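Long-time lurker, finally posting.

We've been working with Histidine kinase (Marivirga aurantiaca) and I want a structural starting point before designing mutants. I don't trust myself to interpret raw outputs, so I'm hoping someone here can both generate the structure tokens and explain anything notable. Sequence follows.
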Amino acid sequence: MRLHPFLYLLFNKILPHSLFWLGVFVFYSYFFEESKGIIPNPHSFSAFLMPVTIGTTYTVNYFLIPKYLLKKKYTMFSLYSIYTLILSAFAIVISIFYGLIFMNALQYDQMVPLSKSLIFTMVAVYLVVLLISAFKLLKHNYSSAAKNKELENKILLAQLKLKEQELQYLKMQIHPHFLFNTLNTLYGYALKKSEETPEMILKLSNLLDYLLYQVDKPMVSLTNEIAHIKDYIDLEKMRFHDSLYVELDIPDMEPCIYIAPMLLIPFVENSFKHGNRAGNKLRIYISLKTETDQIHFKVKNSYNSKDSITEKGGIGLANLQKRLDLLYPDNYTFGVNKDEEWFEINLILNHQKLKSNG
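Top reply, 14 upvotes:
Generated this for you. Predicted structure of Histidine kinase:
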């Protein structure tokens, strides 16, 4: 329920301020009561000091601090603070003078000397001003810190969403290319009515399951990724027949090692797409090993230096490295080596170990 503007002003501004200044009045009465013999009738004297205290406090906290100090106009703040100090000191002297006269019923000969009361009065007034100013600055700092934190969180959230969108875009680039190559191979087998077509369809269905249902998971087991790498290689062996030689050096892996899905398969796919036959065979060597908290992955394929390894509408190594930047920032090392006959990629990845669910 939204309060009426007047009620909002009453409960959030007028009433709290009134209660606070009532507390200051009580403080003054107690402060000057402790100074018996110097300030007679402390309650009446405190009433004389309230206007100058309120005026000085509001001038500092609602004019000097927000207009000059918080805007880092330190010279102007210092200058106007001196003006305020001089004027407030003069107002305090006047308040003391007329307050003492009033309390002594205009009997000048019975007045307490001004010098005896001046120091106590100024201490009381400026103590209130300083305490409120300190509270105002602390409140501002806390509010600024909260706003900065909220702004930082919004920026981080926006960056995260941007990274997620970029990652989805990169995945979309991978999927069509991956499917196109595989379906193209399957099409060739279907035309020849090969007996290997059913086996090829089965392996393709496994890959599609991985592609459609596992790839959106944040992490998958390394053993799962390896199984689909082997399925992909089997499909390519059916396509290349005797013109392909693949050597796998992949020992059994712990089931608790997890990586991002479809992270390694594109590197294998890249070697098939851009490798060149050495003699009458395309030669590919793939090794994957784990050491402590790292995965060492290497793909090496035969290569003709006269042919360019640039992408023509495909995913490319640049795409794959962007995925690594997004998924494993500062947690991977990637290198490319090539000579006249071989093209090799080396990836060292800091992996996660998670408890197996089954």
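Before you design anything, note these points.
Confidence is low (pLDDT under 50) at residues 309-314.
The first strand starts at residue 220 and ends at 221.
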